[in-house]
Predict the structure.
Amino acid sequence: MIALLKKLQPRLYSISSSPKAHPGQVHLCVGVVRYDSLGRSRKGVCSTFLAERVPTGGAVSGFVHHNKNFRPSANPDAPMLMVGPGTGIAPFRAFLEERRATGAKGKNWLFFGDQRGATDFLFREELEAMQRDGTLTRLDLAFSRDQAEKIYVQTRMLEHAQELYAWLEEGGGFYVCGDASRMAKDVDAAPHQVIQTAGGKTAEETTAYVAALKKDKRYQRDVYCGPCQRLAAAVRGARQITISSDPPATRRLQAAGTGSGAAPLITAPNTARA
Ligand SMILES: Cc1cc2nc3c(=O)[nH]c(=O)nc-3n(C[C@H](O)[C@H](O)[C@H](O)COP(=O)(O)OP(=O)(O)OC[C@H]3O[C@@H](n4cnc5c(N)ncnc54)[C@H](O)[C@@H]3O)c2cc1C
């Protein structure tokens, strides 16, 4: 029976740390998948494995999958606008750490949101510290269930359309990351609206503006859903990674050795500058 089953597919997780800030480590920010279906409680395979079953000091098998199309601006002086609801914040924590570690002077603006501020404000202390030390120029938050009316990251983006457009005009890059199933399509529509209204452009001019941003790699998206089906080669090159912190904090995975990895699950961070 087991032989009939398809092999488990790798799960990808954005690296949420800069190697310059945490040499030899990769940090992940994993949302644990739990839901009820057909009268039973279900658990996501990999996310609950990482959160509940791997002990501190235990090992998982992982590999790095590079994403050439999602990385911080090569220009340290260029402003960066980052939109990362939920676990979509992961690469932006890494981008901010990278900018702080390299002394990049460009302004940084993060839009973050989730359901409730009291329980879902990921990396709160770190982000507040980054605001204090000047790494994070602006932080706009949207917790949808903290008030009667639903407020999302795109609501905040539209509220600040004029300033957001000014940052783009200064050469800023626009980055979006997150889980497609939990992120409203409007997140993608928002920049178009911002450019059209704040920039006073027609629909055609807006399309051309966004196309130019994409061409210059100033509009980058890492929007994901579901396990990855096409990483067999990377899986074969997987190495053993030691878990070095307890949940529920971001678990730190410390590279240790190069074994081929017998662990059934693969966690594969991407998006960091490696
Ligand atoms: C490029 C990329 C980057 C990613 N980065 C991150 C990241 O930084 N952090 C992060 O947490 N995740 C990230 N993911 C998602 C991650 O790879 C996994 O898909 C996620 O953790 C779920 O894996 P799992 O094994 O726990 O769940 P699985 O066992 O794969 O179960 C998930 C599946 O369960 C079903 N399901 C889930 N919820 C429900 C529901 N409410 N009702 C019915 N069915 C449901 C869906 O079919 C879903 O596909 C990323 C994905 C990609 C492709």
Remarks:
- The radius of gyration is 19 Å.
- Confidence is low (pLDDT under 50) at residues 256-274.
- Residues 11-14, 29-31, 33, 35, 37, 44-47, 87, 90, 222, 224, 226-228, 270 surround flavin-adenine dinucleotide (CB under 6 Å).
